[in-house]
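Researcher: I'm preparing a figure for a lab meeting and need a structural model of a single chain. I don't have an experimental structure, so a prediction will have to do for now. The sequence is pasted below. Please return the structure as tokens so I can convert it later.
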Amino acid sequence: MSLNLPQISLSVSIKNSLLTSVFLLLAILGGVSVMATMRLSALQGAVEIINHDRLPQIHALGNLETQIAHTHLVAIRAALSTAVEPRADAEQELRLRTAEADAKIAHFKETIGADTPMRMAFEQFIHKWSLYLKLQAVMLEPEVGANRERLERVVNIDMPPVFQAVVDAIGHATRLADHRADTAIDNANLDARLFRLVLWTVNGISVLIGLATLGYVTRHVSLPIFRITQSMEAIARGRLDTEIPYAGHSNELGMMARALAFFRISLVENERLNAATRTLSELSEWLQSAKSEPELYQMISTVLGGLMPECTGALYIYADSRDVLDVAAEWNGQARTRSLNPDDCWSLRRGHVYIHGTSEVEFRCDHVHDGANENYCCIPILAHGETVGLLHVEYAFKGEESAEDAKARFADRARLALACAEHLSIAIANMKLREGLRDQSLRDALTGLNNRRCLIQTARRELLRASRKHTPLSVVTLDIDHFKSFNDNHGHEAGDAVLRHVGEILKAAFRDDDVPCRLGGEEFVVMLPNCTIEEAALRAEELRARVEALNVSYGERMLPPVTISVGVAAYPEAGIDLPEILRVADGALYRAKQKGRNRVELASGGMVPPIDEVTNRAVATLDAIVARAATDTIAPPDGDADQRVA
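Model: Understood. Here is the structure written out token by token.
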């Protein structure tokens, strides 16, 4: 695995993001400062306008309105005074107040300047004021004062509308000034709200930039470092199946993750090699403990499937004919080639290991299917200098690894397969040797049935099981009636033919758990686990009917009919060990012979149930089998005569 340099450095990315964030924050702060200065200037201008322009106008108009009101009151007092001296004082005060009012009017007119709306409003006031002064002069004339009725009309009727017009003109000017001040205040408030909105927006942007920077650093720096650190701690604790994140990134974190992944792969490989070494050291012991070839091949499938999970494989064993090899064990998938010819494999033709995919000059084996990976190996299994089988291993290529990594890993698996082949060859050779010896020691050579030794060994195991589980067990003993006459009248070869046919019927009539045996001569025994004496009697009667229906030809002539006498006994009624049960069953067998032979007797003295419909069908099936086997030729041991089943 190669560690490529990153295209974009993580440190550079962090530096750029932080610099960008700082620059943006400085720019925002600068913009806020400029806007704050501008806002302060605008507020200061508004305050100055209100303080130096609007408020003095409002104050002056208010004073002018007060002055005019006092002047009006003095004028009324002067007009209503009848005494000379008070009237003179009132007129003197009126002249003073009128002069003060004219002076304030003149001063206010000068302060208006180019303010056209205010000037027009004030011109209306001056016009109203002049009318008021004219009416005031009329009211103060002596003739008017002498005419009480006319005076009251001027004071109460003519003067109030004119005075009110003057007051209204001042009020209009005041409202105009107030409106100008209110407008300035509203503009200032609007600017303040706008500035507040801009300030909140800027603050929000600043917070978002800070959060974005924090999120970037957390997501792309802190969290990856934390997760990678967790993976490192988990791997350090031995959890080699821990997932390593960010291995696909092109920055420093990706480099760290890929380095950690490479380290984990190395640890996994070392752990697997150590485990494989330990397994191989135990493999021989386990394989030597197998009690049969199927169990041995099942153990091989389990062990090799775990040792080489990346590989599919199969173990081929030579058939008895030595012309073809059949699949005996397979792992991590089903073998597409179920059988192969020795000439289809280069390793069998060349006599040594053939590893495909490692040399420049190589040829594909004919037994390898088209979809197989090019990385495969074939290893001959040798035992005692003889080839007994073939170990075939294919590498299951995965898309996420490169071709170089696949070849390197397969080379390691090929070496492991070679080490396994050595253990397998010894185990298979020993198993075949044990099977041969066991078959010779436990099988009857003439009939292929179990012999007395096998019966004794099996009986010991089954009696213990029946005692422990409280299950029934029955024993059937039988021998061929008048068998001595077959040997005396037709020869021992004819007798052997009868024995072979009876043996075939015994093997066909009983299931796998049953143990049919030949004790010797014409005597046979069948042990029936999990079978009551009644069931055993029915099956014994079925067997007797099948033998009775048997027609045996020897040479050019037919042999006399064959019959058997049968005795049935059961555990524990007949005894608790095999010799005792056999003795009781033999007693029943002797009673069958005494009662005329070709019958079944129970050790308990009970009656044998009649043959039911199942037995009739079995007899009919046997007749069909015998008819089909009429053309089969059975050669005698010396080859002088042919025996056929009619």
